[in-house]
Design a protein that fits this description.
Layout (H helix, E strand, L loop, with lengths): L21 E8 L9 E8 L4 E5 L6 H8 L7 E6 L2 E2 L5 H7 E5 L10 H5 L1 H5 L4 H14 L4 H4 L9 H13 L5 E5 L7 H18 L2 E6 L2 H7 L2 E6 L3 E6 L1 H6 L4 H7 L3 H6 L21 E3 L4 H10 L5 E4 L5 E5 L1 H15 L1
Parallel strand pairs: 3-8, 3-9, 6-7, 7-8, 11-12
Antiparallel strand pairs: 1-2, 1-4, 4-5, 9-10, 12-13
Helix pairs in contact: 5-7
The structure holds adenosine-5'-diphosphate and magnesium ion.
Magnesium ion binds next to helix 1.
């Protein structure tokens, strides 16, 4: 059985208390009949409770790397350690039950109710009825769906976004130490996709799982990742770093190109008005345009620009004015970011 890094996994633990570190150690995968490896000497470590995004162009080995973790496919070389323990020591079937897995086409069972779908793994693990029922209710509530209303429904009676959330709940059901998510929001329209991303980040703040999240979208990677592993053709690691570091200091031209020429703007999306020194409101009349401190610097810039350069009044959670953000101020922030990058 997998061990928990923070505390022993006993039945008395609070729900969702498990998370394990994950280490790729010189991992390679050569598919039978192929000349070139799909994954080539991959090494990186994800701390317990972190979201690591695997990002890269199509064919760079993201899905392959993910499937090696729960042994859906065998390793050709190297090792993967979960909670410090080689996955090779675990029975593959057991491993797949213990690791939550979310894919794009969700794969909910159409003839099972939503509640029964979420209960799949707990049932396989032999949980008793009362405990399983309680866990299903807890998870439905956690993903913002009413257990009494949604639990008895069938997948076809839910929206695409709701089904995707149920897929996440099902993967979380047995309180796994690790969640694997392969382009989980790839098939969702942009507006709902952003909502699901935000919801997942809120959920993750509560459950604090170790998560490996695959996407080909660098913006999604920057938004979702505590760490980002950028893969390049041939399944090689181009850079492993925090989103901040990837944007500030791309290792090479491949990473710089992949991240995009607008990386200054992207970086501004990572910081909020809380992170910069605002102009004192003293003596200045606050304009009618008010934004919360939690606004990203990037959004503040686009608002100021759309107001033809008029400053924004910034308020805290209690609606107290804490300062102004002016075009000059944003200009100096952008300038220092550019300086940072060169
Ligand atoms: N079952 C397989 N047999 C042979 N080659 C495969 C198999 N699955 C994937 N590949 C090859 O391995 C490489 C990486 O694929 P994949 O991991 O799916 O990349 P990604 O998820 O980044 O798009 C590709 O060149 C792909 O064609
Ligand atoms: Mg893939």
């Amino acid at each position: 059985m997998l061990t928990n890094e923070e505390s022993a996994n006993t039945d008395g633990d609070p729900p969702s208390s498990k998370a394990a570190s994950l280490e790729f150690r010189n991992v390679s995968k050569l598919y039978a009949g192929q000349k070139e490896p799909a994954v080539n000497d991959l090494s990186f470590t994800v701390e317990a409770g972190e979201v690591c995004v695997l990002v890269g162009p199509s064919g760079s080995g993201k899905t392959t790397a993910m499937r090696l973790i729960n042994r859906m496919i065998p390793l050709s070389g190297g090792d993967i350690l979960l909670g410090g323990d080689s996955v090779l020591k675990h029975d593959p079937t057991e491993l797949r039950r213990e690791i939550g897995y979310v894919i794009q086409q969700i794969g909910l069972f159409p003839h099972y109710s939503i509640a029964d779908n979420i209960a799949t793994v707990p049932k396989l693990l032999g949980w008793d009825k009362a405990r399983t029922k309680e866990r299903v209710r807890e998870l439905l509530a956690l993903i913002g769906l009413d257990p009494d209303e949604i639990g008895p429904r069938y997948p076809s009676q839910l929206s695409g976004g709701q089904r995707q959330r149920v897929g996440v709940a099902r993967a979380l059901a047995a309180d796994p130490p690790l969640m694997l998510m392969d382009e989980p929001f790839g098939a969702i329209d942009p507006i709902n996709r952003e909502r699901l991303q935000d919801e997942f980040l809120n959920l993750q703040a509560q459950v604090k799982k170790t998560v490996v999240f695959v996407t080909h979208d660098i913006d999604e990677a920057i938004k979702m990742g505590d760490k980002i592993a950028i893969l390049r053709e041939g399944g090689r690691l181009a850079q492993f770093d925090s989103p901040e570091r990837i944007l500030t200091d791309p290792h090479d031209d491949f990473v710089a190109q992949f991240v995009g020429a607008d990386r200054t703007l992207k970086r501004l999306g990572l910081s909020t008005l809380e992170d910069i020194d605002l102009v004192s409101p003293n003596g200045l009349r606050p304009g009618p345009e008010t934004v919360p401190l939690s606004t990203s610097v990037r959004d503040a810039l686009s608002q100021v620009l759309s107001l033809n350069g008029k400053p924004l009044t910034v308020v805290d959670q209690n609606d107290h004015v804490v300062g102004l953000v002016t075009l000059e101020l944003l200009g100096s922030v952008v300038g220092s970011e550019d300086h940072h990058q060169s």
